[in-house]
Amino acid sequence: MDWSTPFIIYRIDASGSLKEVYHAKDLNAARYWLKYIAKPGDVCCRTPTHPKHSTHNGAPEYFSHKETSGCASSVKENWQNYAKGKSFDGQFPNEEKGVQADEAESTTV
Asked: Is there a contact between 92 and 99 (Cβ–Cβ < 8 Å)?
């Protein structure tokens, strides 16, 4: 499946896997989601459809995340430390799987 949006937001589940919770059509929608809807630890990534994606591979790239304080942050190392504590292996998926209804509180922004 091709990437449908330039931004995608993931949440780490109890098993350490990433679950898609939101597909943002633009930066404003991604920031809104992180600020008002996301849970601490949710990560916003640029997909290969984003013009500033490095295109070295087909996987999304870290852009920002929501801290446990509730603020958005772009300090990748902080999110990596959080993700490591949740048993995330560090690999973003190479394809879009779609948002599962039970993973997102709301997918409309």
From this structure: no
Three-state DSSP string of the chain: CCCCCCEEEEEECCCCCEEEEEEECCHHHHHHHHHHHCCCCCEEEECCCCCCCCCCCCCCEEEEEECCCCCEECCHHHHHHHHHHCCCCCCCCCCCCCCCCCCCCCCCC
Of 43, 44, 40, give the one whose Cα is nearest residue 71.
40
Question: What is the pLDDT, as a whole number, of residue 89?
Answer: 87
Closest CA to 41 of 88, 6, 3: 88
51-103 pLDDT per residue, tens:
777 777 778 999 999 998 999 999 999 999 999 999 998 888 887 887 765 54
